[in-house]
């Protein structure tokens, strides 16, 4: 960054950023509303079994992974804001439609639609956010934007459960659809931006190789968060305590605080060093869960775990997008974020298997080992690997990363 850049820093929180932020917040708030009421809806209204609940819930991850290769090219032909708008509208319709599903087959179809909409919205929004941020502030931009989905998923279930208890399934799902629909309003005021694509460019592979190892490290770290979400209530009960909701609230508070107040950390430390720090903290937090004799130990372990989760995603994503060109960025973002869905699906099965064999503490210890494996992979295949320009990186500090162009193509300029 030059002296002029420091005197006149690029604004990250612009009207376009706020439009994308609000669209994502509305979508994930609506999604969060459906989380606590979907399982009882499947069992009580549609007479499904526990297995059917798992299938219906997991359908989202399937379509989210499958749709990704189709989204990246559309950032050039459609433009990022249009993709956000369309996916938000489609998702809103799916949320409202849950309550109208006559059977679990129809509901599974709507979950497939939801997963595709979620993946499309995230890829398009993150691509635009990172395109407008200078390379040395992309981690901060990602940290700020990631507050939207996390806040929505964190608070949405509270409203969803309350509406269900007072109004029933269908009104709760319908209101979720209305909130999702509201996300279309702010995006209407965001100028449409297309990611530039060179004329006659050769067909690219579906997945971007630069994102594969950082994404793998992310998935190994996310397994710990998945284990906490799935088994913390049962683990706390085994300790003879209750009040799991306060544990989850404290965890959410740590993550949001670090992402908002510490938004500059990934750029200040460098994305690779942030990856080292965050992955180590996740492992430390999971070790704390595995050995704690009391609920107090759980709360103390939330500090390193929440801090690590808050920093890992923006740090590793910034590391990824800094290594690719502007036209490659949507494909890299698509590949990287895919690992979140893989972690949700495969990680849940892995943790459940460990619990069945060795109990909750063994599962938490296994999650700590996964994060340690992530550290090894980070060192061997991410930090020490050659960049796209061919120069090897011998330090965790990302000072020598090639800077991708920041400019994106606006329709106003084209037309």
Automatic annotation (TrEMBL):
<feature type="domain" description="Major facilitator superfamily (MFS) profile">
    <location>
        <begin position="12"/>
        <end position="386"/>
    </location>
</feature>
<feature type="transmembrane region" description="Helical">
    <location>
        <begin position="333"/>
        <end position="357"/>
    </location>
</feature>
<feature type="transmembrane region" description="Helical">
    <location>
        <begin position="210"/>
        <end position="231"/>
    </location>
</feature>
<keyword id="KW-1133">Transmembrane helix</keyword>
<feature type="transmembrane region" description="Helical">
    <location>
        <begin position="12"/>
        <end position="31"/>
    </location>
</feature>
<feature type="transmembrane region" description="Helical">
    <location>
        <begin position="274"/>
        <end position="292"/>
    </location>
</feature>
<dbReference type="Pfam" id="PF07690">
    <property type="entry name" value="MFS_1"/>
</dbReference>
<keyword id="KW-0812">Transmembrane</keyword>
<feature type="transmembrane region" description="Helical">
    <location>
        <begin position="172"/>
        <end position="190"/>
    </location>
</feature>
<dbReference type="InterPro" id="IPR052714">
    <property type="entry name" value="MFS_Exporter"/>
</dbReference>
<feature type="transmembrane region" description="Helical">
    <location>
        <begin position="141"/>
        <end position="160"/>
    </location>
</feature>
<dbReference type="InterPro" id="IPR036259">
    <property type="entry name" value="MFS_trans_sf"/>
</dbReference>
<feature type="transmembrane region" description="Helical">
    <location>
        <begin position="108"/>
        <end position="129"/>
    </location>
</feature>
<dbReference type="GO" id="GO:0022857">
    <property type="term" value="F:transmembrane transporter activity"/>
</dbReference>
<feature type="transmembrane region" description="Helical">
    <location>
        <begin position="243"/>
        <end position="262"/>
    </location>
</feature>
<feature type="transmembrane region" description="Helical">
    <location>
        <begin position="298"/>
        <end position="321"/>
    </location>
</feature>
<feature type="region of interest" description="Disordered">
    <location>
        <begin position="390"/>
        <end position="415"/>
    </location>
</feature>
<dbReference type="GO" id="GO:0005886">
    <property type="term" value="C:plasma membrane"/>
</dbReference>
<keyword id="KW-0472">Membrane</keyword>
<feature type="transmembrane region" description="Helical">
    <location>
        <begin position="51"/>
        <end position="71"/>
    </location>
</feature>
<feature type="transmembrane region" description="Helical">
    <location>
        <begin position="83"/>
        <end position="102"/>
    </location>
</feature>
<protein>
    <submittedName>
        <fullName>MFS transporter</fullName>
    </submittedName>
</protein>
<dbReference type="InterPro" id="IPR011701">
    <property type="entry name" value="MFS"/>
</dbReference>
<feature type="transmembrane region" description="Helical">
    <location>
        <begin position="363"/>
        <end position="382"/>
    </location>
</feature>
<dbReference type="InterPro" id="IPR020846">
    <property type="entry name" value="MFS_dom"/>
</dbReference>
